Amino acid sequence: MEAKSGTVPKKEPANISRKSVDESTVGRQRDNARMFDRIAHRYDFLNRLLSLRCDVTWRRRMAECLPAARNLHVLDVATGTADSLVSLVQHCDRIEVGVGLDMAEQMLMLGRSKLADSGQDACLSLVRADGAAMPFEDGSFDVVTIAFGIRNFADTVGGLREFHRVLKPGGRLLVLEFSLPTNSFLRRCYLAYFRYIMPLIGRLLSGDAGAYRYLNRSVENFRYGSEFCELIAAAGFAEVHAHPLTLGVATIYQGQKEPASGDSHLNTEVDGAH
Ligand SMILES: C[S@@+](CC[C@H](N)C(=O)[O-])C[C@H]1O[C@@H](n2cnc3c(N)ncnc32)[C@H](O)[C@@H]1O
Fold first, then answer.
1. Lowest mean pLDDT among 12-16, 73-77, 96-100, 220-224
2. What is the DSSP letter of 246?
3. Separation of CA 200 and ligand 1 centre (Å)
């Protein structure tokens, strides 16, 4: 693994097959990173408040889905302020190396102090880079996680393919993302909260009206459940499952990169989520 904490590595090893991403996609990704940089100072506080602390439980549930193997090398894409990365390490003692990657520098700055406070910073590092074209060699990680990040990718399947590339054969993908309750009454209540109450609280407390309207729109436009499972499969993953959480307002998705023939690199049992 070549990445250093807090920087985009300048020199690439010859065997990195980094994906090329077109200019308009790069522009959209940069705008998205700027938006997260603007709200970074309030991001964690608003996450806890707006999810009524459910996000803490959801992150723990994602940690429970890590493979049973030891010495795991884990990449958390769109790591933001590194909440998921810290939660993974706190709830799983099998992680040897944890890398968080994000495009938004202000989010990463908060993440760096969180890593230092966690006392786990010896095995954890943060990298500023685009998750759609990552500075890692093929097959670098046992697990790729992404929490509330994939719906921000301009090209969803392209991003998932990139995660597939950096996973070792037999490696596991875990995606935690918002979804909508299947029960129509609950969905209506939830959408009312999401459309009207949450953007209002977000605007008042972060001072950024656009960011929390964007959150609402991006969640409503996201193809969740079986439709998202199809996208994961289209990116090359096998054994794709969705595990809805908390009445379906969030879902953990899981996929496996096919093992190299004759290789049983990781225990593929699902250890946690239901
Ligand atoms: C809603 S936040 C989630 C942060 C964190 N994973 C969490 O659970 O709190 C979304 C993050 O995705 C990042 N992001 C969006 N598109 C990205 C991309 N293409 N590459 C890397 N990070 C990206 C943003 O900068 C932002 O920090």
1. 12-16
2. G
3. 22
pTM: 0.86
Q: CB under 8 Å to 201, separation ≥6 — which residues?
A: 46, 49, 50, 212
Range of the domain at 97: 23-180+222-256
Is residue 141 in some structural domain? yes
pLDDT, tens digit, 9 for 90 and up, residues 34-67 = 888 888 888 888 888 888 899 999 999 999 999 9
Q: How many domains does the chain have?
A: 1
Take atom 27 of ligand 1 and give the residue whose Cα is closest. 80
Q: What atom in ligand 1 is closest to the CA of residue 37? A: 25
Rounded Cα gap, residues 197 and 127, in angstroms: 34
At residue 155, what is the residue type?
D
Atom of ligand 1 lying closest to residue 59 CA: 8
Residues, the chain: 274
